[in-house]
Design goal:
- This protein is elongated.
- Strand 10 and strand 11 form a beta hairpin.
- The relative contact order is 0.10.
- The strands form 5 sheets. Strands 9, 12, 15, 16, 17, 18 and 19 form a 7-stranded mixed beta sheet that branches. A 4-stranded antiparallel beta sheet has the order 1-8-6-3, with no helix packed on it. A 4-stranded antiparallel beta sheet has the order 5-4-2-7, with no helix packed on it.
- It has 457 residues and is an alpha+beta fold.
- It starts with a strand and ends in a 6-residue tail after the last helix.
- Among the domains are: 75 residues, OB fold (Dihydrolipoamide Acetyltransferase, E2P) (Beta Barrel); 200 residues, 2-Layer Sandwich (Chloramphenicol Acetyltransferase).
- The protein contains 14 helices and 19 strands.
- Helix 8 packs parallel to helix 9 and helix 12 packs across helix 14.
- One of its GO terms (cellular component) is cytoplasm.
- It holds the Pfam family 2-oxoacid_dh.
- Its cofactor is (R)-lipoate.
- This is Dihydrolipoamide acetyltransferase component of pyruvate dehydrogenase complex.
């Protein structure tokens, strides 16, 4: 039996809030399944399970904030079981109450009963009285917008049971989680217009988007929904800014940074990349950013003194390269998802992984496994025009690599002067773990890898 705990999704996370459960007690889960959505100061994250088994119990309800490491659920090795039939036992209880309901209507017409059964116009009008259901089942149907008159009851004498309503709700719940449905109601979003499986992030995007008002009469309602939708991103932005501030203060307070930089000739790398992309479609082409990330991962594998964490007063090398990629968010702030062993990934696969991960980062659909601690981080501000980047190390890591824009500059090769594409690579490193000589070896290794780009394939 294993405990599923509130995960640590970064050095700046001390606690998290359970936004929704995607599993129920008795349900079987496999390692890697997404079982819950957890809210951190920076994002709502899909949390994966790291054990296979059956959910024995859920310990923390939706909406509760708990510290990192708190048990959230218990996963055992038993057999999966169906949902608890919570309302089926009392389904027979309403018989004395529900049975008399049709009698006032049927009593005067007893002799014409067969004809009434054929035409059924009057029972349709009296459907609210004829539908047999317990008060909890009626409340559930009302909340879900289900007309009990349209439900074929499977209980005694046609009573509509809790299971009947759950059966009708099952397809909906496959499309949208309870939290996302609640959020959609609050923000005025029609979930029927959203394609595929709907997450809370999809609802936020829809609420914040430009939804045209079809008629002047709806402008006020649209404005109100938009204003309500703006509260969530604003709060998220404030929380994220505070989390980043706390972490960066800690980094500068605790870590003695040193900085090195090197300008690298990319003529060979970009020429090789053009040839590599020659027969690829536009969507399948590898961009220079993927080339720089893989080169960084290979350099980190060669100079392992910069690949790891400073913990309890000592450096602990990483068992493999886990490369953090700083991703700026459209509403401000940033997240640092992690690429696992990019040094061993084929370049085209790395490009696809990177594209997908950046897209999900910006739409708020990251998985918890993608926020596990990186061993070294890369930030690239070249697309924003910066030519060099002096970053701040993300504790407990001991190094951060920054890339600026690829620019064309005069460059001497041997005795010849020409114009070449170059990039400035900078290194911020922890002086407790390494000295400048180690940092210089890392930048030299990075340069060497990029001068022999065929090794990046």
């Amino acid at each position: 039996m294993a405990q599923f705990r509130m995960p640590s999704l970064g050095a700046d996370m001390d606690e998290g809030t359970v936004l929704e459960w995607l599993v129920r007690p008795g349900q079987r889960v496999e390692k890697g399944d997404i079982v819950a959505v957890v809210d951190t100061a920076k994002a709502a994250v899909d949390v994966e399970c790291f054990d296979s088994g059956v959910v024995e119990s859920i310990l923390v309800p939706v909406g509760e904030k708990v510290p990192v490491g708190t048990p959230l659920a218990v996963i055992g090795a038993g057999e999966a079981r169906p949902p608890e039939p919570t309302a089926q036992a009392p389904a027979t209880a309403p018989e004395p109450v529900a049975a008399p309901e049709p009698e006032p209507v049927a009593e005067p017409e007893r002799k014409t009963e067969p004809e009434r059964n054929r035409t059924e116009p009057e029972p349709a009008a009296a459907a609210p009285q004829r539908a047999r259901a317990t008060p909890p089942v009626r409340a559930l149907a009302r909340q879900a917008g289900i007309d009990l008159a349209t439900v074929r009851g499977t209980g005694p004498a046609g009573t509509v049971t809790h299971a009947d309503i759950e059966r009708l709700l099952a397809p909906r719940r496959g499309r949208i989680s309870p939290y996302a449905r609640k959020l959609a109601r609050e923000l005025g979003v029609d979930v029927s217009t959203l394609p595929g499986t709907v997450h809370a992030s999809d609802v936020r995007v829809a609420a914040a988007g430009n939804r045209p008002a079809a008629e002047p009469a709806t402008k006020t309602a649209t404005k109100t929904a938009a204003e309500a939708a703006a509260v969530e991103p604003r709060r998220r932005g404030e929380d994220m800014r505070a989390a980043i501030a706390t972490l960066m203060e800690r980094s500068k307070r605790e870590i003695p940074h040193y900085y090195l930089s090197s300008t690298i000739d990319l003529e060979a790398a970009l020429t090789w990349l053009r040839e590599y992309n020659r027969d690829s479609g536009i969507a399948d082409r590898v961009l220079p950013n993927a080339l720089l990330l893989k080169a960084t991962a290979l350099a980190a594998a060669r100079v392992g003194e910069l690949n790891g964490h400073w913990l309890d007063g000592e450096f602990r090398p990483g068992e493999r390269v886990r490369l953090g990629v700083a991703v700026s968010l459209r509403g401000g702030g940033l997240l640092v998802p992690t690429l696992d062993e990019p040094d061993s990934q084929p370049l085209d696969e790395l490009m696809r992984t990177l594209t997908d991960m950046v897209s999900r980062t910006r739409s708020g659909r990251l998985r918890s496994s993608e926020l596990r601690p990186a061993t070294i981080t890369v930030t690239n501000l070249g697309d924003l025009g910066a030519e060099s980047v002096q970053g701040v190390i993300y504790p407990p890591q001991v190094a951060l690599v920054g890339f600026g824009a690829i620019v064309r500059r005069p460059w001497a090769v041997g005795e010849l002067l020409g114009v070449r594409p170059v990039v400035t690579a900078s290194l911020a490193a922890d002086h407790r773990a390494t000295d400048g000589a180690t940092g210089s070896r890392f930048l030299a290794a990075l340069d060497t890898v990029l001068q022999r780009p065929e090794g990046l394939r």
